[in-house]
Write a structure and sequence with these properties.
Mean pLDDT: 95
Distance between the termini: 36 Å
Shape: globular
Number of strands: 4
Structural class: alpha+beta
Helix content: 40-55%
Strand content: 5-15%
Radius of gyration: 17 Å
Largest sheet: 4 strands, mixed
Amino acid sequence: MRTLYHLWLHPFSRKVRIALTEKKLDFDLQIEKIWERRTEFLTMNPAGDVPVLTEPDGTILSNSNVICEYLDEVYPAVNLLGKDPVQRAETRRLVGWFDVKFNREVSDNLVGEKLMKNFLNLGEPHGPSIRAGHANIHYHLDYIGFLTEKRNWLAGDDFSLADIAAASHLSAVDYIGDVPWEEHQAAREWYARVKSRPSFKPLLEDRIPGFTPVEHYEDVDF
């Protein structure tokens, strides 16, 4: 059976989960507490991080971008990258935007500081980082609004890995109620469309032990 090793609220794991579901591929989920540094897991992925995907034929894949590119190549019936080189380049650019820039400027500063530090007993949240995250997120939501004013989805006419990457990060931040949706209507409307997709529903049912999400987290209409 195909198995995805993941963590709660981990945007990169969430990206792979959505991609697998969009492609209608069956898989089991396995929580991997990476801080325990299990020998068996490190054998599969010496980097020691998630996500890791094991295929039914024994193939082991790590790194969310590697996994998603592999899935699009091996299971092409549902195309999540784009139909031509220009479209694929734009999708990859935006995946990089959210996986690198948004992750560094927002996800790490908000989810990392406010939730994961507490969960892992790593000390008090860093106030300046949280303030930076709250300031930075407006820029990214404005950018989503700018893109969706010109396009049906972030990278073009079709739902793609760009939308998946962006929504994976925002869903983690939204869990703790730190997305100012009321100030960014265009981004909110785009996210509502993503939330309504069947592939997204299982993520909205996730719960990290000891932390309850904000009330609107599962509501597709906010």
